[in-house]
Amino acid sequence: MICVGKRAGFHSVPQEETNALLVKHASRGKRVVRLKGGDSFMFGRGGEELQVVAEAGIPFQVVPGITSAAGATAYAGIPLTHRDHAQSVMFITGHLKKEKDSLDWSTLARGNQTLVIFMGLMKSAHIRDQLISHGRAADTPVAIIENGTRAEQRVLRGTVGELELIAEQASSPALIVVGEVVQLADSLNWYKQFSFAAESATETQAVVNLE
Fold this sequence. Notes:
By secondary structure, this protein is α+β, with helices and mostly antiparallel strands. The chain has helices spanning about 15-25, 45-55, 70-75, 105-110, 125-135, 165, 185-190, 190-210, and strands spanning about 5, 10, 90-95, 115-120, 140-145, 155-160, 175-180. Strand 5 (about 140-145) and strand 6 form a beta hairpin. It is globular. The relative contact order is 0.13.
């Protein structure tokens, strides 16, 4: 097992070295598994890595994962689309350079749309400013989902205008969700309630067994 994980501002192994490791071990006849969280084709560099493998003539197969955009929002009780609130959803990466920001913010800031931002904590102020300056209301609901789908999942909520302040309280890995669908978590937030109920049931069963 070789850890090649990445966090904001820190890569344990450079991407080029990860690519080289895949080719080196596969070329030696090893069966190599590149295990990623989420879906490797959604801002996970899976395509880049497979290009290198393919160019080396190494056969491969892909087992698709569930992107955090779908998993984390489901566990937070936030549907990505809803007939009353969001008729479209867009996924973007917040891992961008301000001086080279080529995103079409006028499209990203449209209403009746859910915007899911990967790796956006460090650029939260820039994201807030761009959304507001391109027409998204400052009071649009926002959620930051930290450690989505895990036992330690935490959901921080506020508005677009408060995005930078909320982001300062969060840590990676985290997902930013912008849109009216966020407010549905008031009634659809099932995960913690379900977890507590299951935990209580387990404790009760344990008592019965002991008796």
